[in-house]
Structure formats: C-alpha cells, structure tokens
Design brief:
Layout lengths: L6 E3 L29 H13 L4 E3 L9 H8 L7 E6 L6 H15 L3 E5 L5 H7 L6 H5 L4 H6 L7
Parallel strand pairs: 1-2, 2-3, 3-4
Length: 157
Amino acid sequence: MSGVDLHWFLPINGDSRQLVGGGHGVGTGSAGLLRQASLDYLASVAQAAEQVGFTAARTPTGLWCEDAWLTTAMLVGRTERLKFLVAFRPGFISPTLAAQQAATFQRHSQGRLLLNVVTGGEAREQRAYGDWYVARCSFAFAPFPPAIRTRKAVHPP
C-alpha cells in the first residue's frame, strides 16, 4: 500500500478569508477583500505547506490569475522539496515549447514539476482564449510520452 500525497492550493490570483475570492467568473469584490498574490506572500504559503508536510502546491490557470509556470518557477528557489502542480492548457503554446519548458523546470527544480492538464474552463473564458477543444490534448502531448511513461525528467542527449 502506498502513502497518500496531499497537495495545497497556491492562490496565485490573490487570497481571502472568504470561501470564494474571485476567479472562475466571480468578481473579486463579491467575496470580500483579496490579499494580493505578491511573491513574498506566495513564498510564505508554499513554505508553510512544505513545513507541515504537503507534497505539492496546486496552481490554477485562467484569465483571472497570474501565470502558473512563471510564478512557480520563481518559487522553486524559495522552497526545498515542495513540488508544484502547474495547471497546463494544451494547445495554448506549441507542444515543443511546452515540452522544453517542462524539461527546463524539471532540471532546475531537481524534478519538482507536476502537470495538471486542464482541457477547458467556463464558456466565457474558453471564448476569450479562442475556444480550444479537448481533442488538442493528444496533439499537445506528443513530445511528452517518455516523461509521462517514466515519471522522470527527460533531458535531451
């Protein structure tokens, strides 16, 4: 029997004491004031999650939040072992570039990247992004199979 991996949420769109604080079509003012998602604040959240034993921190993706790849890449140096579950939308960037970004992240973080494949979102947000479809996932992951099969970073020769 294997252990349980627990993941925390990294609020890269800001934070609040309310249940809903913006994003996914909900206005940020509708659920109370937000704490800004500064790098120092996000680092403190990531460090606290790491300190209490979470395996990874999950990041959202969408029009309403900061870029998950860039934000988590900046946090790697401010944590020691916490992994980052980066929300990734296939089809928004070329598959080759996505594979290169993932390989670079893995190399510089010593293997602390996890990918959360997000195939869609709310209708309004999908239209804003150009209405990409789930079928693009298979095309977008063509460069990834060795990394997915082995669950290890794959580096070019």
